[in-house]
């Protein structure tokens, strides 16, 4: 195996594992807070990544895409956390908060990795592996958070939009859910998702992280 690929996997492994694990656990945790214990009973409110990893979506698809696109693009997913929305005390608004919890966890993680990056620089840690990992942590979480906010079910953004729309429009959007994954993949293949959604919003995310971290940077540097 190419040594550069091994290095890339090593750098991204921890950020990706944390990103998907905390993302899925956040869904289950908020669902439990709002009245549904389904994920908790099934052991999905857990920091154990093995409970969330989907062999195809988390391992096979990203590796295949890495080789097919020569590392230019990777996409994957974890096992969805089961939520019985009817059990939520307020199904409509509860579903919004449950859906939003996943991307929110990623944006928080992006900030945490950013703080780590600043601290590494402040303490003059020049080991490239750790600085690359911190940078990867910011990037992975921004991409995962923004991607999941795309307003199409079954992505989290689609569920947020369904909660915000009037009932008739929400039901119409819900009918797209069986085709949502294929629509997203088509947008990925054509480049539309990256050009019009991921790139602009991830850039905004980087700018926001930088703005928030400036006080920390002035303290450490």
TrEMBL record:
Residues 137-189 form the Peptidase M50 domain. Its main location: membrane. It is a multi-pass membrane protein. Its cofactor is Zn(2+). GO terms for molecular function: metal ion binding; metallopeptidase activity. It comes from Caballeronia arationis. This is Zn-dependent protease (Includes SpoIVFB). Keywords: Cell membrane, Hydrolase, Membrane, Metal-binding, Metalloprotease, Protease, Transmembrane, Transmembrane helix, Zinc. The chain crosses the membrane at residues 56-77, 97-121, 133-152, 179-198. Pfam families: Peptidase_M50 (PF02163). GO terms for cellular component: plasma membrane. GO terms for biological process: proteolysis. It is found in: Cell membrane. Belongs to the peptidase M50B family. InterPro entries: Metallopeptidase_M50B, Peptidase_M50, Rip2-like.
């Amino acid at each position: 195996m190419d040594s550069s690929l091994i290095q890339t996997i090593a750098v991204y492994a921890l950020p990706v594992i944390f990103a998907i694990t905390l993302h899925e656990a956040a869904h289950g945790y908020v669902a439990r807070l709002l009245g549904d214990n389904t994920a908790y009973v099934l052991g999905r409110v857990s920091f154990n990544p093995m409970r969330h990893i989907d062999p195809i979506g988390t391992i096979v698809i990203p590796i295949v895409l890495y080789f097919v696109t020569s590392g230019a693009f990777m996409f994957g997913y974890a096992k969805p956390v089961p939520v019985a929305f009817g059990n939520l005390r307020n199904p409509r608004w509860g579903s919004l908060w449950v859906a939003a919890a996943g991307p929110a966890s990623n944006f928080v993680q992006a900030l945490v990795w950013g703080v780590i990056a600043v601290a590494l620089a402040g303490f003059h840690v020049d080991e490239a592996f750790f600085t690359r990992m911190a940078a990867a942590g910011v990037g992975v979480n921004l991409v995962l958070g923004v991607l999941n906010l795309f307003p199409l079910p079954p992505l989290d953004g689609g569920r947020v939009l369904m909660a915000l729309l009037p009932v008739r429009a929400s039901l119409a959007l819900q009918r797209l859910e069986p085709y949502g994954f294929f629509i997203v993949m088509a947008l990925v293949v054509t480049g539309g998702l990256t050009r019009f959604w991921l790139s602009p919003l991830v850039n905004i995310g980087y700018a926001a992280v930088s703005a928030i971290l400036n006080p920390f940077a002035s303290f450490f540097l």
